[in-house]
Amino acid sequence: MWQFITKRFGLMVLTTLCLSFIVFFLTNLQPNLVKLAKTEAGIRMTDDQVLSWLGDRGYNQPLLLRYGEWLGVVPGYVHTDEEGRTRGRCISPHVKDTPTYCGLLQGTLGNSTIFNVSVGKALATRLGLTGILMFWVMIVMIPMALIIGIFAGMREGSKTDRALSTVAIGFTATPEYISGVILSVIFASRLVFDERFLLPSAQSAMENMSFSNFALPVMTMVLYGMGYIARMTRASMAEVMTAQYIRTARLKGVSFPNIVFKHALRNALIAPFTVIMLQFPWLLTGVVIVETLFNYKGFGWLLVMAADGNDVELLLSCSLVAVLVVLVTQLISDIGYVFLNPRIRVSS
Amino acid sequence: MPVWIAMALTFSVSYYFRDKLGLYGRLFDTYTGSIGFALVIFWLFTAIFADLIITFDPIDQLSGMRKKIPGALVPETFNAYLLGGDLMGRDVFSRMVMGSRIVLSIAPAATIFAFMVGITLGLPAGFYGKRLDTILSFIANLVLAFPVILLFYLLVNPAIRSTGIPVVIAAVLFLFPIIFFAVLFQSRYYVQANKRNIYVGLTLLLGFWAYSGLAFNQDPLQLLGLEPIFYMDPNLLNIFVSVVFVNAPTVFRIVRGLTMDLKTRDYVAAAQTRGEGAWFVMLWEILPNARGPLIVDFCLRIGYTTILLGTLGFFGLGVSPESPDWGMTINEGRKLLAYFPHMAIPPALALLSLVLGLNLLGDGLREQSLKD
């Protein structure tokens, strides 16, 4: 077992390294850097000025070397220009002693150019806000999806099954930017409801959260994710219900609710667990859309700002967080699957 | 109007001959299948007859019609803006109809390309296994670990376009359909040299013609001073490539899984005993038997690709600012949602119904193909 976990963990670290390098490469392409120089030091720079600006800040070094600096395994870039001013990756006005290494391994993520704070700080606040959103999404989504899936799957082909499955398909066909728009029109415009029933904007949810200002973003995200989980639960439930041991239980005269809850449910929930874990990458896309749509300033909003504002360091760190979330959930789902399903023996 | 006629024709003909049409015919036995099919062909015919349906030019701006409510009349001609006017005074209805053409030309094409890539790589990975499988699976997982939205932000922007990375990716990805068809014919007809030469030759000729036009924007006809047939706007190419890139690894995983399952079957062993080559077994024995799940996934994947294109448009990364692409229209409309919901709702419902139709169709197909 431990060997399996270490192996998976090693693979994850390798994947993270590869992916962070790809992201580093894509965000540090020459046109991006030129744009960065121009937004930072004035739009009317000549090409030579841009080159020297980038050179002073160490952007002209080979890509691999700079990736090493960012990781924190290569000493940070230091440069003293003709006027005697010393600049370097690791030199910041807030810290007195300049460390030699500053990168991911030292916990330094650089500075955000659009927010003028350290990337770590910006990420922490935004991730906190998104965490709250995700928490409520999960609280609402998982029970609802499981209930729909179990009720649809326990009697395959029945009317309840048909109705619930169609509803679930309908949900999977409604991406967040559509359900968000439709929900907003119904609950937040003057078209359907009277002034008194309108829900306030989700922007206010960042300070004081209440049901009324948080319901729309949460529901928007729940709807799309729920359909998929419900369908998976239904399929898994339907499969378990045809198993031999369920038939035996029925022939023994066990009541139907008892069969569903005591016998079928435990085996039927293994597959949805993996699906729920693997749902995180999808939720991440949902987070970006919902936060843009409702102007909730969380992680997704930060990602959009970083990409639009060409904030290289911030975008890089956002990407790293996103990739890590995906990989960690994959790892948990793999390990959890083995734990939950005693039929799988890990060959070591 | 032409849409309804065409739909009625398709339905009556298909329904009449449903017993002879195999899987396609049996689709009409289920409610979900026929409703899904109806929605899909409705949008398909709308896209085909879009020129006849639109009441106004979708990019024509009439300043008097800005933000007008549905049914408002144009002052001089007294033609109605059926679904109102948008921010720039364009007809929402005509834009929605024209939008279907864009969506239905990009989404299926991108899905087909993703399938070509996925099949060409997934078959050998599943068939040979071992090191090849490990490497290809690792790469696929690498792409899958990227959150889709992040990949789009990194890959679809003007800065990336100027470095030529999309062209490089396109050059790699667009090669796969050619390889696929060339190997397909080669493995089947290599004993009949004449037939082989014709098929493989035609594939290579047409393939590389389209290839040079689509990926490098250098259709040979252009060099001769003629109008190019295969042409893709750099922006469109960028989007197209990203969508294929996102979808291909999932298809790869499905094909690989199916191949690993099917290669233990008796007919594969029989073919190998006959002395057939590995690629013949893969392409002519395994692939046709894997078609059921692949067709179902194809339907679902077109729906997913449509959603992806909408997402791109929603973030302003769409085809072009003027184009009536649904995602972009939703994005434009949402800013004034509280006051003028008629701008965002029609394209939103259009996209919703198309994807719903594709999902229902996929589900109906799955149900019917499981009965075999």
Roughly how many Å apart are the termini of chain B?
38 Å
Ranges of chain B with pLDDT <50 over ≥5 residues?
none
Uncertain stretches of chain A: none
- Taking all Cα atoms into account, the compactness measure Rg of chain A is 26 Å
Pattern of helices and strands of chain B:
HHHHEEHHHHHHHHHHHHHH
Number of domains of chain B: 1
Report the CATH superfamily of the largest domain in chain A: MetI-like
| Overall morphology of chain B | globular
CATH topology of the largest domain in chain A: MetI-like fold
Tally of helical segments of chain B: 18
Order of helices and strands of chain A: HHHHEEHHHHHHHHHH
Can you tell me about this structure?
The complex is a heterodimer of chains A (348) and B (372). By secondary structure, chain A is mainly α. Chain A has helices at residues 2-27, 30-41, 47-56, 63-71, 119-154, 159-172, 176-188, 211-241, 244-252, 256-268, 270-278, 280-294, 299-308, 312-340, and strands at 78-80, 86-88. Chain A is built from 14 helices and 2 strands. A two-stranded antiparallel ribbon of chain A has the order 1-2. In chain A, β1 (78-80) and β2 form a beta hairpin. The longest helix of chain A is centred in the middle third of the chain and has 36 residues, at 119-154. Chain B contains 18 helices and 2 strands. Chain B has helices spanning 2-16, 23-26, 31-48, 50-53, 92-128, 130-144, 148-155, 158-163, 165-173, 175-189, 193-216, 220-223, 234-262, 266-274, 278-289, 291-314, 326-334, 345-370, and strands spanning 72-73, 80-81. In chain B, strands 1-2 form a two-stranded antiparallel ribbon. In chain B, α5 (92-128) runs parallel beside α18 (345-370) and α7 (148-155) runs antiparallel to α13 (234-262). At the A-B interface, α1, α2, α6, α7 and α12 of A face α6, α7, α8, α16 and α17 of B.
